[in-house]
Design goal:
Layout (H helix, E strand, L loop, with lengths): L8 E5 L3 H14 L4 E5 L5 H8 L3 E5 L7 H12 L8 E6 L4 H9 L4 E4 L4 H14 L9 H35 L1
Parallel strand pairs: 1-2, 1-3, 3-4, 4-5
Helix pairs in contact: 1-5, 2-3
């Protein structure tokens, strides 16, 4: 079982060290407080997924040993209810193959991105991945942030209600004397 985290975790599984470094840097820029891990060996993917259950898993499609589609297929049972491990899973590929894209979505991928041809496009892609995964710039889940905001609003309402009650009781006491 995974521990509750204050920040989001991201795992990038890509056999190309250059691509994974670029993606990692842009994700860190997009999510300052995120915990980003890079795995360059696809054979470690399933164990890493089960151990970390990341909020965002980025899988390269074309890798030796296990493809990203193989990994996605292997984690399907872990992502299904009632276990529901992990968050969004997005595929990353140099291929524009419609068959790869269709298969990824059939297996439950939440997104499919083609590796950009320019370095500047990686920043936009990383920001889009963060947004589509429901994460914000600080690396926290937007759902977690919404709960925090809701609890804060509830605390303010209670404080206001108590203050009104106390002021009201002081007014009635002063009227009686």
């Amino acid at each position: 079982m995974t521990a509750v985290r204050d920040t989001s975790s991201v795992v990038i599984i890509d056999d190309d060290p250059f691509d994974s470094l670029i993606i990692e840097r842009h994700l860190r820029a997009a999510m300052a407080d995120a915990d980003v891990h890079v795995i360059n060996d696809s054979r470690k993917a399933l164990a890493t997924f089960k151990e970390m259950a990341p909020d965002l898993l980025i899988l390269d499609i074309s890798m030796p040993h296990l493809s990203g589609l193989d990994i996605l297929e292997a984690i399907v049972p872990y992502r299904a209810a009632p276990k529901k491990m992990g968050g969004s899973v997005v595929m990353l590929s140099g291929s524009t193959s419609s068959q790869d894209k269709k298969r990824a979505y059939e297996l439950g991928a939440d997104g499919y991105y083609v590796k950009p041809s320019s370095l500047s496009d990686y920043a936009a892609m990383a920001a889009e991945m963060v947004k589509s995964a429901g994460l914000n710039e600080s690396g926290q889940s937007l759902a977690r942030e919404a709960v925090s905001s809701f609890l804060y609003a509830q605390a303010l309402r209670m404080k206001f209600a108590l203050r009104t009650q106390i002021v009201g009781s002081h007014q009635s006491t002063s009227l009686q004397t």
